[in-house]
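Q: I have 278 residues here and want to know how they pack in 3D. Can you give me a structure?
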Amino acid sequence: MSPRALWLLLGLILIGFLYLTARSWITPELPPAAVASHSLPQGGCPPNLAGTAGRHTDLHTPGGLGFTVIAPLNYQPDRRYGLLMVFPPAGFSKDMSEHYYQLTQLGNQHGYVVAYSSAIPLSKRALALQSEVMPQVMSQWCIDADRVVFTGHSDGGSLTTGLTLRPGQSSLMPSRVVISAAGITEDDLQQEICPAPTHVTVLHNPEDQLFPGYGEGTVRWWGRCMQCSETLQTEVSGCQVRQCAQGKLLRHCVTTEPHTRWPAVTSHIWDWLDTKAP
């Protein structure tokens, strides 16, 4: 990369970060917890779990990473809730991340405990620290292991990918992952071991300012990894879906938003998370 191109790339990153930081200063208060409106299965969790309803801030993993958990207002410890684990873009605190994604209230309404972690620069240490969040949540709240979802944009998408491929201290695979604008190439993925099949959604703008064309390579790798059919079906969302091994789905959503934006197609995320493969 030429010096001029490198400075342009750094400038785009700085502008995007400043834009999102400025938005966080003028965003309204964090959304309150909501009531779960879905019927949830009963039993299957250890007794005497400490987690309770509502918003829980200032939580920390054993390694010191801060995170927030928001459980539905009608949370009951004998019901199994989904877990929506939301990973942050670069430089975002857990509060900034919650402002950015706007997933709290609908997540609660769909029967999910929602967790947001704070960012640290991507590295092996970052993967290790972020991998501690899910076990912490599951040790305190009653979580359905079949409804654990990882999602994130940019660095958050890279974390979602990395923690699916390298789960760290947890042996539990997410049941679904939604990866947006991740900075991981097909060549990067070639170095990884294919995990057990899971439902995978990849969101990427082919003309992304930072990671142009990365999404297509990511989808190719997941398609080989999960032994997906070449037959494509187009959803109402406009995303293309392929059937894969063990009844899993691979979804590819071509987005148009700039790198700094969480894609509008994520308004369909609740259909993706709770709709079973045909």
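Q: Anything worth noting?
A: The beta strands are 54-60, 66-71, 81-87, 112-117, 143-153, 176-180, 199-204, 233-234, 240-243, 249-254. The chain has a mean pLDDT of 90.
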